[in-house]
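User: Can you recover a sequence for this backbone? Please restate the input before giving your answer.

Assistant: Of course. Working from this structure:
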């Protein structure tokens, strides 16, 4: 019997629309994100886009929610693997944060610019970060050192985002490795 061809999982309409919105923001900037631009980019009808996202604000909320969901999944996977291997969840999280390839700089800047008009859009990001840090700091042998490492990783990400990373790739790798070493602690 011949092997049946495997099908790629189909993306949901919401995902296709969100992908299109990300491309618009990345290519044209957040100021050009409109329902009409997403209609053109996605190939959906205006009614199809509006059915999934009734307003531009809902579209931006969807973009933020998708980023939060992706980060949450990455964090939970890193924590699970660390527990299974008997490693520190904290060092696994820092390693994951350092190794994870962020969204494009232009897209993230556009999203931040859009959120500047509506600061409440960042509430899900704040909530995720607060919960994640509270969970992990509760088990840190040195919570102040853990906070310092978190802030350093955030600084690396913001330097990337703002195009102000002045480290060579080798320097960056050494800094990231040192941050992981600082936080690596035997699991108690």
């Amino acid at each position: 019997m011949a092997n049946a061809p495997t099908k790629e999982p189909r993306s949901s309409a919401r995902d296709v629309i969100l992908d299109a919105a990300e491309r618009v923001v990345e290519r044209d900037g957040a100021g050009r994100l409109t329902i009409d631009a997403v209609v053109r980019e996605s190939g959906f009808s205006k009614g199809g886009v509006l059915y999934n996202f009734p307003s531009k604000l809902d579209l931006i909320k969807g973009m933020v929610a998708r980023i939060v969901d992706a980060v949450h999944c990455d964090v939970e996977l890193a924590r699970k693997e660390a527990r299974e291997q008997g490693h520190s969840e904290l060092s696994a999280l820092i390693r994951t944060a350092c190794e994870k390839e962020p969204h494009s700089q232009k897209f993230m800047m556009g999203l931040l610019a859009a959120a500047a008009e509506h600061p409440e859009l960042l509430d899900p990001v704040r909530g995720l970060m607060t919960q994640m840090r509270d969970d992990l700091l509760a088990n840190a042998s040195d919570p102040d050192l853990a906070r310092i490492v978190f802030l350093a990783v955030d600084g690396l990400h913001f330097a990337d985002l703002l195009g102000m990373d002045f480290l060579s790739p080798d320097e960056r790798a050494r800094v990231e490795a040192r941050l992981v070493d600082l936080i690596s602690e035997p699991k108690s």
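That completes the design. Residues 61-183 form one domain.
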